[in-house]
């Protein structure tokens, strides 16, 4: 669980660095962050659910994917709220031209990458357990 939290913290702070240096103009920066976010959130929930009794392994896997998807949706709502409230203050106070959320296609791609990241972790986790 500690490794997942460490990597999620690195991803979180690299978002700010990416905003400052304008990295979100590159398509791969946001996509990579969402994929890795989904991967490490799934790792976090996998560790969290490790001692939880589930009716089957598949049910636990579904819980990990569902929890990761839920966090992705909450993140997208946070991006929307940030785009409504933080863009002007960041520019006026720090000179940072922030970009938080794109159009519907961007949001769907972000959620898809969160889920693909979670399934990628699951595929690695299941393969290691066999």
User: Percent helix among the residues?
Assistant: over 70%
The gyration radius over C-alpha positions equals 16 Å
Largest sheet: none
What's the helix-strand series?
A: HHHHH
Q: In angstroms, what separates the terminal alpha carbons?
A: 21 Å
Shape, please?
Answer: elongated
Number of helices: 5
Give the low-pLDDT segments. none
Strand content: under 5%
Q: What's the number of domains?
A: 1
Number of beta strands: 0
Structural class: mainly alpha
Quote the average pLDDT: 88
Structure report:
It is a single chain. The protein has 130 residues and is mostly helical. It has one domain (2-129). It is 80% helix and 0% strand. It has helices spanning 2-20, 27-48, 57-85, 87-94, 104-129. α1 runs antiparallel to α2, α2 (27-48) crosses α3 and α3 (57-85) packs antiparallel against α5 (104-129). The longest helix has 29 residues, at 57-85. It starts with a helix and ends with a helix. The model has no long low-confidence stretch (mean pLDDT 88).
């Amino acid at each position: 669980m500690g490794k997942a939290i460490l990597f999620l913290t690195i991803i979180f702070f690299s978002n700010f660095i990416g905003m400052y240096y304008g990295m979100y103009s590159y398509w791969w920066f946001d996509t990579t962050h969402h994929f890795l976010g989904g991967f490490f959130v799934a790792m976090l929930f996998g560790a969290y659910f490790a001692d939880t009794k589930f009716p089957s392994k598949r049910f636990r896997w579904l819980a990990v994917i569902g929890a990761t998807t839920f966090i992705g949706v909450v993140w997208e709502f946070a991006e929307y709220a940030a785009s409504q409230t933080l863009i002007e203050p960041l520019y006026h106070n720090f000179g940072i031209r922030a970009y938080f959320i794109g159009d519907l296609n961007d949001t769907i791609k972000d959620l898809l990458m969160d889920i693909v990241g979670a399934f990628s972790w699951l595929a690695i986790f299941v393969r290691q357990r066999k």
